[in-house]
Amino acid sequence: VVSMDRHGTRWEEPHSTGGGLVTIAMSELLDRGQIEFLLILDEGEGAALAEIVDEFLALGAKGRADLLLALGDGDLSTVCRVACSLKMASANVGAGTLSVVCTELQAAARDARAEDVAPLVRRFESEYAQVREALRELVANTA
Amino acid sequence: VRILLADDDPVTRLVFESLVTTFGHDCVVAEDGTRAAQLVSSTPFDALFIDCMTAGVDASQLCRRAREEPAGTSVYVVLITGPDHPEHVLEGMSAGADDFLMKPVDTFAVQTRLVAAERIIGLRGVPVKAHAELDSATSSCSIGS
């Protein structure tokens, strides 16, 4: 069963993890398997997940600012490097679609396809904003 | 197992460190290859996990340096890579890495590499013991003749 919150994010109904440790409601933006893995790191207490999400959000905020600056400067080398970093960080927090957007952005910047970079940065911004809210909600739900 | 992780990505560092600590291992993290190279030359580690794209001293150079250390032949070296950089894995393994795993890291991938690392660490004393037994046998032969 899927519902929608005030941010327009789609959420699955609360669901018990495989280990039976916690019950979580989770956005469809996030990969359940990866989130369960992060929860298992401290046996479902959620502190490790919260710390990892904090680190991701700090990296994401800086990455977003760096991307916009580099886009304005036409600095595709920086876009490529930042997208690569965000691609892996996104995968680590289960944000699969965001990771794919970063992969596409990295490839466009690497191949100097300037016409594709700007729309992909906008897509990154939109997806990142949704993932950020979904992760914050997730951490609040597991605290 | 005393582990050194070299990875630029702070999220990967945090996930990996939490994971191996959960398994009961000690983990030191380095934010780039340069810091990792300093640590390798000053501290003995049982296993190195090195991101192929790490900045500063690259993964292949780090593998070579690790192998040149006194305990370098038995340190277990694992490369960490993304799915789009297979060429770095081959280069790193040619430089002395034992294995690789793909990002994002997960329990199974890390645990299986640590099982292998523990086996390698367990074999460390075997050549020394064999040499000692051989020396002893040689001495006995000399006395006998």
Number of helices, counting only DSSP H or I runs of 4 residues or more of chain A: 5
Quote the distance from N terminus to C terminus of chain A.
Answer: 23 Å
What oligomeric state do these chains adopt? heterodimer
Write down how many β-strands of chain B occur, each being a DSSP E stretch of 2 or more residues: 5
Average of pLDDT of chain B: 89
Largest β-sheet summary of chain A: 2 strands, antiparallel
Low-confidence stretches of chain B: none
Based on secondary structure, the structural category of chain B is: alpha/beta
* Rg of chain B computed from alpha carbons, rounded to a whole number of angstroms: 18 Å
Strands of the widest sheet of chain A, in order across it, are 1-2
The helicity of chain A comes to 55-70%
Shape of chain A: elongated
Instruction: Using the alpha-carbon principal axes, give the shape of chain B.
Output: elongated
What structural class do you assign from the helix and strand content of chain A? mainly alpha
SS field, number of helical segments of chain B: 6
Beta strand % of chain A:
5-15%
Q: Which spans of chain A of ≥5 residues are poorly predicted at pLDDT below 50? A: 16-22
pLDDT averaged residue by residue of chain A: 86
**What is the N-to-C order of secondary-structure elements of chain A (H for helix, E for strand)?**
EEEEHHHHH
| Strand arrangement, major sheet of chain B | 2-1-3-4-5
